[in-house]
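Two proteins follow. First one:
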Amino acid sequence: MPASASARSPRSTLALPRHPGRLLRGVWARAGLTLVLALAGGPGAQAAAQQEAPEWTEWWSAHRQDYLVPHRLVPSKEEQEQEQEGTVTRKKIPKVEEVNEFALAQIDDPWPAVRMAAAFLLARTSGEKALPVLRQRLEKDDGSQQHPLLLAIGLTTAPEAVEMLVDVIEDGMLGRQRLALRSDAFATLGLGLAREHGQREAVDAAIEKLLKRRKLGDEVQHALLTLAALSPSPALEEYCREQARNRQAQIFVRRRAAASLASYPGEKSAKVLLDTFKDASDVDLVRSVALALGAIPGDGHAKALVKLYEREGEQHIKAHLLTSLGRNAGVGTLDALIAAFEGGNTALRDFALIGLALYTREHEAPRADQILLAALSNRSSDTRKEVVVLACGLARLPEAVTALAELVASGDTQPVRANSALALGLIGNEAAREQLLAAGGNQKGSQTLPEIVGGLGLIGDPRDGETLVGWVRGLKANERRAAAISFLALHGSIEVIDGLVQFGGDQSEDGPTRAAALQALGLLYEDGPRPISGRPLRFERMPTFPEWLSSLWSMSY
């Protein structure tokens, strides 16, 4: 099942070919997430042999929200029991009425980003009651914000919202009003939000109807495949397999289908992915397959992954296979990761470190721990320190706390200091908390303070909420204040909610600061059965996201 060297465009173990599907990577990668729990990534890797080499930051930017997860607001014990019984979908959570009123007050703000964030927050906190307000804004909109409004309408989970979205998908119309181009695709994704938040039966019926249509536009096909990552359903599982195999489909549709098969980790998905890996000629399609294979457990799949890695010649694909080896954690994967780390290829060493961290995050692996700690203490290593510190955090190594704390205070570069702060938060013990509190007290106004806030937010100790808000309040706009406000969402305390309402409602603040506050509140009030914000972000990367969809999560999360 390995790919033959002649199956794709020319490859090298040292560099990527100039593959046409990758020429727009820089353009699409710059399509920003305005609410992003942003990690200050390291400097770009040097190109090997005058060609672009794979970047570990590419993996992290697409996957970070799988690990930088906000502490969710906790409902009452009675409501938790009702949720387990399946009798409620929306939960009464702290200060929801106050935040609902706040969102309503911001829905007509002059700043578009604030209006968008307010729409999502209103949908989360008000549910069905928000639908008339959102529909009215949609009817009056000139087309500039119709796409995010359709997503917000899905978040209300109102039965009428599902019907409205289906109508838009079928003819691009809201009543007699024609909506903006590609509204049908965004309405499809709105269905995904409605399904994940409680309208499964109605949305599944709508999806079945859509899949029976003879012709679907490329954007709607892509939206349906993205919906499989948002809220996997049986009907979409078969559709993903069909489109991954479909050589007549647009290549970005095939890439999206292959990536979405990670949501269906079974034997059928594994066979499609392995066959596609063998036969595909598009480098980015194979990369999507390499990433998806890591989500399918089993020793048989692990052995296949090892063989694919050993026989693969394309460096970019080998790099992403290393992260899949770490996630799969089966027979032979640890040995393959260690061999890759010791092999001397700097770019692959970075990915091997990430793979080792993912492996030991879930499994006892003293050899992996030793490699990570040795790389952390080795000042002469050619492995970049910003990936080493992050890997120690992903692996949750308590032995790394002291060294990481020293790097927060005196690391050679900003990325090293920032990543070290987040790594302490990912480790999350009391020793890490104390070190971050000390660092924040000593670095008020520094460029690293947002990540220090993020690290303490990941730990989520209730005692720290007031301190974190005070630190952020002391920052000026040009001192990464909006980034620090976004990081506040990780903490999930009453004090943070109060602080975010104050930041968002203060008309003397600039637009980006106020929008960040509302978006952070939106993350805190995420009320689905599982946080939806992180799961699809890995697919924002260029090979699996077309341009029209690249701003989706900047609008919603």
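Second one, unrelated to the first:
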Amino acid sequence: MSNLKVLIITEKPRVAERIAKILSAGKIKKVNVGKVETYSFISDNDECFVVPASGHVVELDFPGKEWFYPIIMEPNDLIYRKIRGKGKYLRAIKEIGQDADLVVIATDLDTEGSAIALEILKVLGWDGKKDVRRMEFSALTPKEIKEAFQELKPFDRSRALAGFSRQVVDLEWGANVTRALTISTRKHAGVKVLSGGRVQSPTLSILVDREREIRNFVPETYYSVVGVFEHEAGNFEARALPPPGKERIDSKEFAQKIKEDCEGKESVASVKSREAVVRPPAPFNGTSMQVEVSSITGLSPRALADRRRGIAQQLYEAGYISYIGTESEKYPKGWSKKDFIQMIEIIRSYPPLREEAEWVLANLREKPVEGKKEDPAHPCIHITGAPKSPEEFPTKKHRQVYEVIARRVLATLSPDGKDLRTRIDIEVEGHPFRATGKAILERGWRKVYPYLAEKEVLLPPVQDGDLLLCLEVKIEEKQTQPPKRYTPRSLIKKMEKLGLGTKNTRAQILDILRKRGYVEGKSFVVTPLGEVVVDVLRKHVPEIVDPEFTSQLDKAMRSIELGELDHSKFINSSLDTLKKIMWEFKKNEEEIGKEIAEGLKKNRMRAKLVGKCPSCSGDLVIKRSRYGRFVACTSYPNCSITFNLFPGEEVLDELCSCGLPLVSGRVKTKSGRSLKYTRCLGNCQESPLRCRECGSVAIVRRGRFGAYIQCSKCAKTNYFMIKRS
């Protein structure tokens, strides 16, 4: 007979199954409760049930559907709405848990995971009425899961309230700013939604500032002056140093004087060498993992860390790595040398990394390298399991991500590297030259983690006092370059530095900025709409786009998590500030709406522009008729040139050699295959869309069953290739 009925709530279905299998030693019963797979087993005579949520099953919202602002409400007056498609999870939890004696929370151990648990307890009326405990674990390994279940902790209410506070503040800020922007603009232009938010708007302002830095950048001409010096062991190059007080050589006459003074002259070398220790990098936290693994693999940060489908998230759920939402750069407290060896042995069991792991075991450093950042809930990302072979991974990308993380772990336990840094200074006729070299003496950790290894710069073995002859001085005119646009990786890094958002939300914010039409491109290019929204907010309500203001709010939420700040005081203070800001917005609504509408108009015109007319040099724009989209010249009726666009075709930024833009699209074959093509908008003779049979230009045509591609000469259908320039 069972003593207690225990309900274990997990955040995701896959985690529920894994926890159930571990705690039951595989002896589980699977039962579908309203299309949700649940699991039951007996543990110490207790009847245990594991039931998953699916992330957030409800969302905080305002009551009613009428749109107006300001709308500032007390948290208790907000309501929870069921998220479409998630109701079955809530019903399953309720059905199994309504008579449970103990509710165990096994969601992710962070503010969002704990907030998910709290909202379920509130919606079901269990908060304060049921005995609720917490399983605390950082990895889905048998050892950690069993220990967490045996040593249940009190429910982490302060962490949950920090997550709840973020939900309330983000909802009320986001709803008010979005409604204000949308309502004010709708009076002057047709628009669906213009969004803004506590993190979204400051992030957009960072991108606008960078865009203007680039636009206002004035390039300066400077000269690279490089001397070629002769030595018996081999010639080498040394760069001329700029005059004192200057960063560069900016005078052509001075560069020419160096050349005239130094060519054919001898001088004595001054050589300094030193051995430099190169320490391994710190282990990954959530942000550094997104940034670096993204850079190495080419995956986007979102593809890595999305809580539902991210590759690194899936590796965590499979028990291969520890929790990826951590902010820590430190290993678990209390780990001994034995624990680190066990982790290396796990990596050693994975065949592709066996050799590297064995090398680390033979050369293990006394203490692992760690960073400064800590997380009250989780250690750094580390390896917790390994498949028997690479073929067990779902995709090659899963394997690649796992191996980068495993190599990073091995690096932190590996010996330092050692380099020989050499500097050769030569003063010729009063003009200083310098050459710097680097030779790797000991690879150390770079043997197992090659991604950060710098290239060697080898110099001939010049000795201090050697006589050198300047054979030649090469002068190259250059220009200073503007700062680079932010990429998803560099922007996430910037957001972390400024304290904007969380490791789980930053990638989502970037997606929203693109979706709203504020930015475009792989490297974020701000649109006219994005610029005008930031300008208007800065002019009238600058706090909304101030990164420092938002960062202070995030620091306060960390204090709530640690129990140092009362969540009610924080929420009330934030909402009081928001109320003042939104009434200021309301006061300037008419002016704000007009300014944004003008930016919206420019943005729409820009989106329609696709190139220049080959006939009159007017602008080519995308237009729409009852038959669909087409491209036409804005000089109509003086110029009547038009080009067809087929359903689903997109005009690319790339140009055909004829000057018209390229167009991409897809056709379906009779067998159901989807084939992607690229063509010239005007189907000119240089179009990349060619017949695979005879090499002639292929043309997209409209048929009874949709678009198809036909050769302009031999009439071969859907048999094409894309000619690369």
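SUMMARY FIELD: The radius of gyration is 31 Å. The chain has a mean pLDDT of 92.
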